Amino acid sequence: MAYTWTLLFSLLPILSVCTASPLPSVEVMKRAKQLVVRLDEFQFPTELTTGALDYDFSGTKSIVAALERCNSPISESLEGVTQVKTELSSLISFLRQLRQCSEDPEPTPQDQRFTQSKTFESLKRTREYLQQLQQNLDNLDTC
Asked: Which residues form the signal peptide (predicted)?
């Protein structure tokens, strides 16, 4: 009987790793959907185009890099953008933890010369990227 309990407890770490694998993608999907809903609340100028998305989904590291490129030019001067940046930063942090990236990039001073059109472009690009991310969650690295 004692051996059974010992065996069971020794297998718990293995079982938790095996069963935890799909959970990060569920969390990323939830956060990405939440952000897309929030970004859909913005009224983008009709003439605004973002061009082709040049980001790849080859792994968590590339996803983090793409989201950082989306987040970086977004100015907080528009109403509601602070919440988007907070949630996007939270998603990036979650993905970093998933990837076990302990080093954070050097903080850069926020350039105050961003115009509203640049912010709208970045918000729209972020929304489009998050929509595509939801279709490519199988590329997330698992620990």
From this structure: 1-20
